[in-house]
Amino acid sequence: METFFFHPKVVHVPMALAVLMPLIAGGVLVAWRGAWLPPRAWIVPTVLQGILVLSAMAAMQSGERDEDAVERVVAERFIEEHEEAAEAFTWAAAGVFVLMGAALVMAAKPIGAMAAAIGVAGTIIVMVLGMRTGEAGGALVYKYGAAEVYVGGAQAEEAVEACGPGEEHDDDDDDDD
Predict the structure, then answer these.
(1) Which of 77, 79, 89, 151 has the most other CB atoms within 10 Å of its CB?
(2) Domain residue spans in the chain?
(3) What are phi and psi for residue 7, nearest 5 degrees?
């Protein structure tokens, strides 16, 4: 499989799910508690949360593969900021997945609905962490020029030569005035 642009392709799955999960999980919980859906319907948000976790892990792995190339044009501190945000996002998503799984197992008991409600709150936290991760990743591409590595040909070589390896880039936003 071609790895060219793999990371940008993969990251959109966990980001989209992170935004949708509070709505999906919240909706299923309301339907469960209102007796419009049986407790076993909680499997839907649990499976989707599992997909979020797996796709976030895949995105982290693909980001690790791209890191050395991107470090040629982007200062390491900006890459580390994105990486740390991605790790927090992934671990929080995994924690919410475990909580949702527990709610599914205990769905027939009152504590199952309580665990599900905490899981819904957790999806909101995961969404916020996902937004932070996406913002840091977007800055790598649109502000610091990480995509230059993949442009190819003379443009990529010019970007590497102009920036130098590991060179700190100007992150001053004052030039937008």
Answers:
(1) 89
(2) 6-165
(3) -60, -50
Q: How confident is the model at residue 5 (pLDDT cuts 50, 70, 90)?
A: low
Q: Contact, 47 vs 103, CB < 8 A?
A: no
The pLDDT of residue 54: 98
Distance of CA 82 to the CA centre of its chain: 10
**16: nearest Cα among 100, 127, 99, 120:** 127
SS3 per-residue string spanning the chain: CCCCCHHHHHCHHHHHHHHHHHHHHHHHHHHHHCCCCCHHHHHHHHHHHHHHHHHHHHHHHHHHHHHHHHCCCCCHHHHHHHHHHHHHHHHHHHHHHHHHHHHHHCCCCHHHHHHHHHHHHHHHHHHHHHHHHHHHHHHHHHHCCCCHHHHCHHHHHHHHHHHCCCCCCCCCHHHHC
Query: Which residues touch 163 (CB under 8 Å, ≥6 apart)?
Result: 72, 73, 74, 145, 169
Is there a contact between 115 and 99 (Cβ–Cβ < 8 Å)?
yes
Tokens of 113: 């609905």
Residue 51 C-beta-side C-alpha neighbours within 13 Å: 15
Given pLDDT bands bounded at 50, 70 and 90, which one contains residue 4?
Answer: low
Does domain 6-165 fall under CATH 1.10.10? My reply is no
